[in-house]
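Listing S7. Sequence submitted for prediction.
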Amino acid sequence: MACLGTFLALVALLGALAVFASSRAPQHGDRQAACRLLAQRFHGECSGTGWFDTPQVRFPYGAVQVTVETLVPSPHSLGRGAAVRVHLPWSGGAWRAEIRYPPWPSRATPLDGLQTLSPPADAWTIPCSVRGTDPRAVAELVTKVVQSHVEQLRTCPKVSPLCIQLDGGAMTITKVLPIQPGPQLIRFVETALELYDQALLTRTRGITFVEPRSAQVLEQVVCRICGEEIREGLVFCRRCKTPHHRECWQYAGRCSVFGCGETEFQTPQVAPRLPGDAAGSARQA
């Protein structure tokens, strides 16, 4: 009897594994196919092809490395279903922030020092909760342009739970998203990169673009193509004003900001010395 019971238990276990495999195989195959297309689009590498592995893609983007993971199931806090997570490096400072849809309830307990921020009227147009450890830094981050890209992520390809986190030197974008072969995953990652570019522009220090015929302050500007500080040969995008090395621009043939696409650059001009500029006179002497 004991042998019979063991045999029946083994048969039941094998049946359960077969049912699990049959339900998982199409989904896992779709994730692998989607990741292969994504790797081809961004000239990256696809890994996690094993049965129990998580398919993911790594590819270079300018001077940084991007990692895209396909998660099944999605993180518990976002709800049920598959999800996509995009990891990007972030060096905006020690503060942390989170943008989330659906919003946290107003009575939600603050977690890990993240306080729900209450912006001035009409300051934020995104239907998300925004939390952070530094209200001023978060307000500088969530510009109208950044908000528009967050809204694109929230609705791409359809409205579903979304979480954008800045923490530990990384930006993490996670969205509940059915992972299927085709352009859907590619479009989501493209939109995430557009948000990343705009968020980086809000962290630029020492560079101010003002109206034409006015002075522009340029200090410690880094080229987004090679990652090196621009000490000479500086040009900037005619459209979005992003600075580059002239040689790097000519090598790439266009602006490095994803989604900009501008092919023409401009060269900054040295502002004339103002009358009565004692410091300038002293330097010349």
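Caption to Listing S7: primary sequence and predicted structure tokens for the chain studied. The helical segments are 2-42, 135-141, 144-155, 183-202, 246-252, 278-284. The longest helix spans residues 2-42.
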